[in-house]
Amino acid sequence: MSRLTEPAGVLEASPLKVAAHNARTVGSSVLITNDVGEHALLSPADYARYLAGKHETPELVKKDFVRDQHEFGHLADRTVARQLLDWKGPNVHTIVVTLRCNFKCLYCHASVVGEERTDKDMTVATAKSVVDLVFQSPSPNLMIEFQGGEPLLNWPVVKFIVQYAREKNKHHKRALHFGLISNFSLLDDAKIDFLIANGVSFCTSLDGPKDLHDKNRIFLGGNSHESVLVGLQMVLARKAAGQKTDTPNAICTITRHSLGRSKEIVDQLVALGLERIQFGPLDPIGFARKSWGTIGYTSAEFVAFYSEALDYIIALNKKGVKAYEKMALIFMVRILEGGHWRFPNADGVARLAYDHDGSVYSCEEGRLLANEGDGFFKIGHAATSTFTDLLDHPTVHASLLASNSNAQPMCFQCAYNPFCSVLPVYNQGTQGSVFGRMPENGWCEKMMGLFDVVFTKLQDPEARKVLESWLEYKSR
Amino acid sequence: MKMKLSRKIYSKDALLIAAQVLSTKVNVYLEESKSDYTVTIEAKRRDAGKEQLEALAGEFGNELLNQEYRFLVGRFNSKISSLIVTQTLMAARGGEAPAAAPAAEQTPEFRKLVADLVKNAEAEVARTMPRKIADQGTVLPPVKEDAGV
């Protein structure tokens, strides 16, 4: 996979005609992009003529690639809309209600403890402080995600947080959502009743067929694969019966054992009626770093897996199967609609994470790094910090500066800059600084590979039609 | 391991930042003359051999280049970067005057409601949680890969 960002042999450009842009050879085309998030795919011959000031199509003019035809009002509006992001405060709040877990997954990023360690549960008093802090965020949308460990092991506190947040929201009037991220092994009808009645959505992990799933996710005293399927089917049955709940989401974590098995993995999810297929690549940070030698892989290996899986999902779509791949959908929103939908950076400003003891982190992965001894992303405590204290923390400022790809070496010259994102916590965890070193950065290599895959598919008219059709799922 | 670096090419700021970034892996000692910096790099791991030390010195060199490159990019883009960060923080704060908590949350009725929720949740915790607490500091070790179900 080439890390070169520009087509070879390009030296001169017509100064009057050629507007600032970045370029990259992708498949048989040259991709050009600009700061306002526009892109165009040109043949190498057309790109050469464009550079010479002799290729001036209505598309290139409209997309602000032709310098002497800029409409500066339009350009300024687009620049402001794209660069000066209006986050409105953190909306995703991940609450770790316990570190206890009844699973022992090979890759589990969280440093979990045994089921008897109730000292690693969030107390009711801490949960109250956390909810109070969540509501200090001015965001009109609040999403509270329950994580662990296994959050259902501290069920009374999950229930309390839902009830207390709903009571507070009667006065705050936000769009309030809840999500439960669980292995489903402790799910029962009474819990499902409560969760559905209170609008909590369900998310689990399903890594593929039984042998693969059970190898990755070890259930201490049970059948891991079966417990997930039973839980998924219980929720799906409620939905089929007309109860108001979203289709449960099942994230598929990709380990070395998954490589070469993309079709089986997709088939498993499709057979369950899950339209959303979401792959979770491993990163060598947190707990996964310790087992990286056996379950890890190179960025190129993951990109090859992803390309094969995406081909298969597109082929299924052509046969009438309704399924979409989440990462490709995010890319489509950014590439085709200019959106920064669910941007993963802006830690502390777009998302926050709360540990069982009330410690507040600018992101969930930052909490995982703290478990390894690097507390850089800890920005406060629920009992003593105010929301503005959190925003004023130097870590939040440094992360924001590092997230800005216009200030990043290599990123600012990259054709994928308008659609990509820098991940400060990955940089800190793997390279010792939130800014990172892009030429050796595994996240960068992976993202460039994934964008190569997607932009190659976009050059195939039939594949493009399928990918564009996935935009209908973006509001789900 | 020693490296001699020209002062015409490298700045002291970049050297100091690169040393800080790699401070968990290496000790870096800096000396300067009129024309050069002399950087001495020692691995923090005592068992590091010549090969590992060379790799660490290479990583230090890459980080140094990265920092020089960041200064260069910053000269082009520091104003827009600063504007973006300031605007993002102000937007996230809810503007210059963030909204106060609703007055309804200060009423005796709401306080009683919350106190009841807390009491019920604490009672459920006491009723349902396992009693046994193991010794502290027993975080589970990484599981062996072949320890399947």
Full CATH superfamily name of the domain at 92-336 in chain A? Aldolase class I
Give start-end ranges of low-pLDDT stretches of chain B.
136-149
- Give me the CATH fold name of the domain at 92-336 in chain A: TIM Barrel
Count of helical regions of chain A = 19
| Uncertain spans of chain A | none
Shape of chain A: globular
Annotation keywords:
heterodimer; A: 476 residues; alpha/beta; TIM Barrel; 10-stranded mixed beta sheet; 3-stranded antiparallel beta sheet; 19 helices; 13 strands; 41% helix; 13% strand; B: 149 residues; alpha+beta; Alpha-Beta Plaits; 3 helices; 3 strands; elongated; disordered C terminus
Describe the structure concisely.
The complex is a heterodimer of chains A (476) and B (149). With 476 residues, chain A is of the alpha/beta class.
Tell me what the structure shows.
- The complex is a heterodimer of chains A (476) and B (149).
- In chain A, helix 12 (299-318) packs parallel to helix 18.
- Among the domains of chain A are: 1-84, no CATH class; 92-336, Alpha-Beta Barrel (TIM Barrel), CATH 3.20.20.70.
- Chain A is an alpha/beta fold.
- Helix content of chain A is 41%, strand content 13%.
- In chain A, strand 8 (249-254), helix 9 and strand 9 form a beta-alpha-beta unit.
- A ten-stranded mixed beta sheet of chain A has the order 10-9-8-7-6-5-4-11-12-13, with helices on both faces. A three-stranded antiparallel beta sheet of chain A has the order 1-2-3.
- Chain A is built from 19 helices and 13 strands.
- Chain A has helices at residues 44-51, 58-62, 72-83, 124-134, 155-172, 189-197, 210-216, 224-240, 262-271, 287-290, 292-295, 299-318, 326-336, 364-371, 387-392, 394-403, 424-431, 442-457, 461-469; strands at 22-26, 29-33, 39-42, 92-96, 141-147, 175-181, 200-205, 249-254, 276-281, 324-325, 351-354, 359-361, 378-381.
- Chain B has helices spanning 12-21, 50-93, 108-128, and strands at 2-6, 26-32, 36-43.
- The two termini of chain B are 49 Å apart.
- By secondary structure, chain B is an alpha+beta fold.
- Chain B is 50% helix and 13% strand.
- Chain B has a domain at 2-79: Ribosomal protein S6/Translation elongation factor EF1B (Alpha-Beta Plaits), CATH 3.30.70.
- Chain B contains three helices and three strands.
- The chains are: A alpha/beta (476), B alpha+beta (149).
- Chains A and B meet through helix 4, helix 5, helix 15 and helix 16 of A and helix 2 and helix 3 of B.
